[in-house]
């Protein structure tokens, strides 16, 4: 199973919920194909780093990718159930 390099994971955790270029909202894709919102990523950061370091691919928090949610208004966190913010598909405000 592919995973992101530890240095990239740590830099992304340090960077925060938005990408450094463009400030796009990020989420994590886990080894079991779950999507985690950034609040859950931050709340479980030490566990995520541990699963990466131990290569515990069966753990639901094993990091495969850090992605930006470009246009999916129906993307929800598999950990907490909250909708994951998107870059271009946010509801219009009146």
Distance between the termini: 45 Å
Order of the strands making up the biggest sheet: 2-1-3
Q: Low-confidence runs (pLDDT<50, min 5 residues)?
A: none
What letter string, H or E per element, gives the SSE order? Answer: HEEHHE
Count of alpha and pi helical runs:
3
Give a quick account of the main beta sheet: strands, pairing sense, barrel closure. 3 strands, antiparallel
CA-based gyration radius: 13 Å
In short:
This protein has 94 residues and is an alpha+beta fold.
Mind sketching the topology for me?
Elements: H1 6-15, E1 26-30, E2 35-36, H2 38-43, H3 45-53, E3 63-68
Antiparallel strand pairs: 1-2, 1-3
Description:
The chain is α+β, with helices and mostly antiparallel strands and 94 residues long. The chain has a domain at 6-68. It is 27% helix and 14% strand. The chain has helices at residues 6-15, 38-43, 45-53; strands at 26-30, 35-36, 63-68. Strands 2-1-3 form a three-stranded antiparallel sheet. Helix 1 (6-15) packs antiparallel against helix 3 (45-53). The protein is globular. The model has no long low-confidence stretch (mean pLDDT 89).
